[in-house]
Write a structure and sequence with these properties.
Elements: H1 2-46, H2 59-62, H3 75-85, H4 91-95, H5 99-142, H6 146-156, E1 166-174, E2 177-184, E3 193-197, E4 203-207, H7 210-235, E5 240-250, E6 257-268, H8 269-273, H9 282-288, E7 292-296, E8 300-302
Parallel strand pairs: 2-5
Antiparallel strand pairs: 1-2, 3-4, 5-6, 6-7, 7-8
Length: 315
């Protein structure tokens, strides 16, 4: 009995040890996941500009010859009709008296083949129409037609897939200038805590200092401005674009929160071709490009006047 009791106690200790080990492993996995998710979130907020710049070629499409409507082909019908015209009843067909049925089936095949030829022709016509529509659209884009430019951005850029960078974009055309007015993220969209992984494997959660949070907001606004500029310059046949970033700030005079301009930057295609975007700090690059913003570690962003850059948001 004592031996059995010792064995039972030993088995229970082993069970508890395994359970504790699994619990610790689960906690470490959860900690690693929490730290990884935090790092991914910070990268999404402040690293949206870290992409490869590649220009879309509109000129090749715009200068292509339009396709003439393709002629209808009757390859399927002719093949089916040949089978019908060359049919000779075999021995079994004669014995089983099924020649008429076979002839009727072959005649039906001719009708079915004619329908397949019709559908193939319709598909060819649609393909030609689509190709010609692409050529016409490309020509309007090359001509810098405002509606065509906006449509090109909606269809071919990644602006609609930036939920962690922007909340909305309007495009303004001003005497040859193209200005992207971007509703950027607010300070409230920044995380309030940091998550780091300790040497023990456990996650450490700490309140993000106000200054650091304001810095993260600044970096997020700068990164979003650069990413929007990248998408405009990569998608459209233009050499320069201006970006005006907005964010929500408290108006001390009224006590209301209003969306106000906080950053203006003019970016050229050449500028993006001379830097390694995947390794560039957003704020440093905005400053290098001559971006205008009013920001301090104590107060964060302050509103700037878009009229100073010839932009009127009231219209």
């Amino acid at each position: 009995m004592r031996a059995m009791d010792r064995a039972a106690k030993q088995a229970e200790r082993q069970r508890i040890a395994r359970q504790n080990a699994l619990h610790r492993e689960a906690m470490l996995d959860a900690s690693a996941q929490a730290a990884a998710e935090y790092n991914e979130m910070v990268e999404a907020l402040t690293g949206a500009h870290r992409v490869t710049f590649s220009k879309r070629d509109w000129l090749t499409i715009a200068t292509a010859l339009e396709e003439a409507p393709p002629p209808r082909k009757d390859v399927e019908e002719q093949a089916a009709r040949a089978r019908l015209d060359t049919y000779l009843p075999g021995f079994l067909d004669k014995v089983l008296r099924r020649s008429e049925k076979v002839m009727a089936a072959l005649a039906d095949d001719v009708d079915a083949a004619r329908l397949r030829d019709d559908k193939a022709h319709a598909r060819a016509l649609d393909a030609a129409d689509d190709r010609n529509a692409q050529i016409a659209a490309a020509r309007r884009v090359v001509e810098l037609d405002p509606d065509a430019l906006v449509a090109a951005l909606e269809e071919h850029s990644a602006l609609g897939r930036l939920p962690f960078s922007v909340e909305g974009i309007d495009t303004i055309f001003l005497d040859g200038r193209i200005v992207a007015v971007v509703d950027g993220l607010d300070l409230e969209d920044m995380p309030e805590q940091t998550v780091t992984l300790l040497k023990s494997g456990k996650a450490s959660f700490k309140t993000l200092a106000t200054g650091k949070r304001l810095e993260m907001h600044r970096d997020a606004i700068c990164s979003a401005a650069l990413r929007v500029a990248i998408e405009f310059l990569a998608t459209l046949p233009i050499g320069e674009v201006e970006v005006l970033m907005l964010t929500d700030l408290l108006d001390a005079a009224t006590g209301h929160i209003e969306s106000v301009p906080v950053l203006h930057v003019r970016v050229s295609e050449q500028a993006f071709r001379t830097v390694n975007l995947t390794r560039t700090d957003a704020c440093a690059l905005v400053e290098r490009l001559g971006g205008h913003m009013s920001w301090s570690r104590r107060d964060g962003f302050r509103a700037i006047n878009p009229a100073a850059f010839g932009i009127d948001l009231s219209s």
